[in-house]
Amino acid sequence: MFAYRLVGLFLIAGFLAVAAVSAQPALPKGVKVQPAVKPNVPAVPNVPKGGVPDGKNLGIPAVPPGVNPGIPVLPGTPGLPVSPQPKLDNIKWPTELNGKTLEIIVREMRTHSDPAVREAAVRTLPAFGPKSRELGGNDLIDAMTKELDWNVRLAALSVGPTVILGFAKAPDELLNRGLGTIVNYLTHEYMQIRFDVIGIVGSIGPFIRINQPSVVQKLSVRAREAGSWQMRRAAIVALGNVGLGKQTGDTPDLRDPPDAQSVTALLDILRLDQCAAVRREAVNSLISLGPVAPVQQKTWKSSLDNLFKLNIEKDKSVLLWARVLILRNGPDGLKGNEVHLDAIAQMLGVAAPASRLEACAALAVLGEDAKSKLGNVIDIINNAKEEPEVVIAAITAAASIPSKSAVVVPILVNVKAMHKNEEVKRVATEAIDYLTMGKKKN
């Protein structure tokens, strides 16, 4: 439970850096679509669940409980997750929904005169499991390319990763054609279509880069699109997902170095983009990609050092997380980079509560590497006048240093007993459990 709070704090810090909200780009005349998933700030990117409908607005049941419709490992295919995935063949998938068989759903998707019915059929398709790919995969690709109603076409694109890739047993022509179709929409003439497809592509992760290498170049173009900072920001999130290196073990850190082209694009954006929120997202993606390959480390380091040496970056939030990036992913880690840790800790003393919260979030991400600054964090925890949200962030930072649990736990016990804010007391309780459970395991 508390481990998720560490990631959640990183998310909160990202959203604090972006206060402005822009209007959505224009659609083709008369077309309305559901908004795409907004870019976030992933600490460790995961493969999202894809486009399986929840049935709320369609009168259909969701995919059977307990089923993760994520992207499974395809035999003999590099770059996909190796963590345990559900055995799709062992799931008892429905043979009909609301009295309609899969055959009827596929037929409605292809030929029904009412576009709302066709869209409902498209969104229902994944609920039938792998059989939906066998009977409806080609028709789904036709809906992506030939459907006259844009709402139906966008629905087909949104469920495409689940049906075409998620239910695949091995790479085949249908997979290549389906993913190629999705990637081609990154260059579509309508801005909103491009925006929505960026989210779809990003949700697939590194496999789409391996299957469709042109995706990195196309996302890089979108990440420089002058007419929409939200478009650029979304494309950067996608680059951070598709640029991940090949997974080599069971945990997120066991993977090959990230894609060099993706890293280069993100470094260029960090240096050149005029929007601080976009630059901040570039830092986030670089953090989530992890350490770069040795051959790219010199360029990576000089690009980041120049943000400080040449006074290129003015935004305090971008600078803060660029420091985290250097400390977290640099080949030397903390050694020789103590100045960056000192600068992060100094942010704990600024007047703005949001900046103090963000500094706590940065220290939480650094974990044990920030243990020399634990005293600064404890000062915030013990400050009776501090904002509750900042105290919560400080508790999270302190709990991310398990080696100091003997110091931290007694302080949190006092917070749990004496603090006036109930949410602070609850988080202190979670942190105590987190630290003491870890100690028992050791």
How would you characterize this protein structure?
- It is a single chain.
- The chain is mainly alpha-helical and 442 residues long.
Radius of gyration: 23 Å
The end-to-end span amounts to 19 Å
- Helix count, per DSSP? 20
Q: Output the strand order for the largest sheet.
A: 1-2
Order of helices and strands: HEEHHHHHHHHHHHHHHHHHHH
Mean pLDDT: 83
Beta-strand segment tally: 2
Write a brief structural summary.
This protein is mainly α. It has helices spanning 2-16, 102-111, 115-124, 130-146, 150-166, 173-184, 191-204, 206-211, 214-222, 229-242, 260-272, 276-289, 294-309, 316-329, 338-346, 353-366, 374-382, 388-399, 405-418, 422-441, and strands at residues 96-97, 100-101.
Features:
two-stranded antiparallel ribbon, mainly alpha, 442 residues, 59% helix, 1% strand
Provide the fold topology.
Layout: H1 2-16, E1 96-97, E2 100-101, H2 102-111, H3 115-124, H4 130-146, H5 150-166, H6 173-184, H7 191-204, H8 206-211, H9 214-222, H10 229-242, H11 260-272, H12 276-289, H13 294-309, H14 316-329, H15 338-346, H16 353-366, H17 374-382, H18 388-399, H19 405-418, H20 422-441
Antiparallel strand pairs: 1-2
